[in-house]
Amino acid sequence: MLCFKIIIVGDTNVGKSCLLLQFTDQRFKNAHDTTIGIGFGSREIRIMDQNVNLHIWDTAGQESFRSLTRSFYRGAIGGILVFDVTSRLSFQGLVQWYEKIQSYACDDIELIILGNKTDLEEQRQVSQKEGMQFAKQYNFEYYETSAKTGLNVNLVFENLTKKIIEKVNSGDIDPSKENYGIKINKKLNKSKEEQKLENTQLNKQKNNTCC
C-alpha cells in the first residue's frame, strides 16, 4: 500500500479544516474555531487498483503561524491551494502560498487550485472563470467545492491521488525518496516533534472544529 502526504494551504477562514473533515469523516461542523498550528487527518482510498493511505496536513492560514508550519511542507507529494470564492483577498493570497510551496516542498509535488464555499453563491466575489484562468497560468487543475455540502470534495482528493500514482507508475516520481510515497509497512522517518503532534491531532480529531 502506498502512503502519500498531502498538504492543504490557504488563508485563514477559506475552509481548509472543513474540507479535511468532510473528506475524512464525511461530516461538516458549523461551529467555527481557527486552526492553531497544524491539523491532521487520514483516509484510505482505492485508486487505479491500488490502496492508498492519504496523510493530510491542514496548515494554519494565519501569518503569525506560517513560520511554524515550514517543516510540514517537506515530504509532501500533493498540495491543495484553497481560496474562498466569497473572498477576493484569499484568492489574491494564492500567489504567496504557491511561493511558500516552491520554497519548502519537494520539486515533484503535484498541486491543484480549489475554490471553496460554492454553497454561498450569492456572496461570490471570484468567478469560476477567474479561478480557471489562474490555475491555467500555473498549469494546474482547478476545482470548485463546498465543504458544507460535500460537492466535489472526494473528487478533488481522488483526482490528485490519481495524478500522483500516474507519476509513480511512469517513473517521474521515485517513491523511495522524500518519504512522500512509501510502502505503508515501512517506518516513516519522523522527528519526535512531528510524531508527538500527529498523535495529539489523532486523539483530538473528533473534537476539532472547522476553520
From TrEMBL:
Keywords annotated in UniProt: GTP-binding, Lipoprotein, Membrane, Nucleotide-binding
InterPro entries, sorted: Small_GTP-bd, Small_GTPase, Small_GTPase_Rab
Annotated GO CC locations: endomembrane system
Record keyword Amino-acid biosynthesis present: no
Record's subcellular location: Endomembrane system
Protein name: P-loop containing nucleoside triphosphate hydrolase
GO molecular function, one term: GTPase activity
Keyword GTP-binding: yes
Source species, domain of life: Eukaryota
Primary localization class, coarse: membrane
